Each structure stands twice: as C-alpha cells, then as structure tokens.
Amino acid sequence: MRPHLALIEDDPDFALMCRTYLERAGFTVMWAIDARAGKAAMYEGGIDLVVLDLGLPDGSGLELLRALRSTSRLPVIVVSGRGGEADRVAGLEIGADDYLVKPFSQRELVARIRAVLRRSQPPDVPVVLEVGALRVDTAAHQAAVAGIPLTLRPKEYALLELLARSPGRVFSAEQLLEQIWGASWQQPATVVEHVYRLRGKLSGLPTPAPRITTVRGFGYRLDP
C-alpha cells in the first residue's frame, strides 16, 4: 500500500509543489495549512509520516511536535528555513526524526522520507498465508497449491498475495490498481488481464485450487 503522509505547510505554492512530487513518487498526501488543521491530521489515524514546517501562522511547529511526542512516536520530518544549529538541535531533541533546511530538492525530501519510514518499521516477520490448498510464503514471494509451485510474474504474485491476505473480501479494480500498481490512473483493463492470467495458472493445475471470483459491479475475491 502507498504510504500516507501529512504535509503541514502554510505556503500554498510550496505545498502544491511538494504534494505533486510526493504523489508522483508513490505517496498519498494530506495537506494541512496551519497548526490546528495539522494537529487534526496527525491524530486522525492512518498517517505513516508527517512533514512539518515550523513557521505556521497560528502556532509553532515545535510546540505541535512537542505535543505529538507526548503521546505518539509517529515519524516526523521537520522542514524549515531556520537552518541554524540551535534550531536543528531543538527540533531533533524535541523528537523530530529528521530535519531538512529549505530550500531543498524534492528528490532529497523523498529520499529522507523513505529512509525514515524504513527505520520506523518493525523487522519483517515472515508470514505464510493459507487459503484452502493455496500456500503463499510472503518472505520468499512464492506460492504453491497442494505443494505444486506456481510460476508467477511479480504483479501476478502481488495480486495473489493481496487477495490471499483477505480471502472472501471483494476488492474493486481501483483498489487493486492503487495497492499493487501504486497508481489509480492505470486502466482497469490492467487488472482484468492479470486476473485472467492468474486464473489460468490456478485452473491449469492437476489439483483443485482456490478460485478468483468476479463479483459483478464490485470487483474480485479469492474463494478457497
């Protein structure tokens, strides 16, 4: 799934530039223009990381960070025109995970975000998903039915793993595009093609296998 960011920034032009670049880089972005809206965004839930400007029109970004750190370890990257050592030290000591001084390149911002997200994630725990005779090893990125390995392309495997994580749940084409391809602008025909190929590989096995069911008007689900 695409990481969900909260961008708390009072400069509309700068915020639009950041948001556009970050979304193209594979993130979803919620923009808040001041401390009040930023606080609501941070505590809304579903946010993976906050990009926080310090100079907000209705309060200090540092105070917002201090309040957040009293209850949460949500990753925060401070972005600010205040590049002095005292400012950087204050932000990091209060609890920022990184501090980026304006102006900076959007590529650097993306790299810093990805680095902080990697550090904040717990170590991967290998998970084996079982749906009927299907066994999906998420650590090895391999799938088998009744011990018979499936030869899958990367997106076919990603599709099968996603469906196997929630058997019986219906996923729309738009949800599958967003979560697997990271881009809802792709054509739904992309999903149809991959479902068709994956169905062929499951049905071509010499043993009964789970099936991908089309729920007309809604999407697809995996049935044991």
TrEMBL record:
SMART domains: REC, Trans_reg_C. Keywords: DNA-binding, Phosphoprotein, Transcription, Transcription regulation, Two-component regulatory system. InterPro entries: CheY-like_superfamily, OmpR/PhoB-type_DNA-bd, Sig_transdc_resp-reg_receiver, WalR-like, WH-like_DNA-bd_sf. Coiled coil: none annotated. Residues 4-117 form the Response regulatory domain. SUPFAM superfamilies: CheY-like. GO terms for molecular function: phosphorelay response regulator activity; transcription cis-regulatory region binding. Residues 126-224 form the OmpR/PhoB-type domain. This is DNA-binding response regulator.
